[in-house]
Amino acid sequence: MTNIPNELFYTKTHEWVKKISQNVVIMGITAHAQEQLRDIVFVELPSLGKELKAGEACAVVESVKAAYDIFSPLSGKVIKINEKIQEKPQRVNEDPYGEGWFLYIEISDPNEFNALLSQVQYQAICEPAS
Fold it and tell me: Containing domain of residue 76, as a range?
């Protein structure tokens, strides 16, 4: 099992969230997600200022296998995008929790954090049932 950072929050659809300040988060996809996708060849990110709703598609990742929607973990406004992963999509495979981040979101409802998973909860859904 891939290392799952303890300081992040997670979704059941394999996105991660890190709190940067009281109302700003950074998000990306987990190591588990990028391993399932394999070689990522294209990333489509939303435009700056776009309003996102928790649980709705906010980006698209294409791998050599297929295209996959990436879902916004929280509601809010896109305030920064990672243009480097658009130029070099393999950064998502190489460093999903670092250089492979997707967006900064100015969140509109901090209570939505309650629906996110802890590291322990996320690890439990990633491990195969025994």
Answer: 9-123
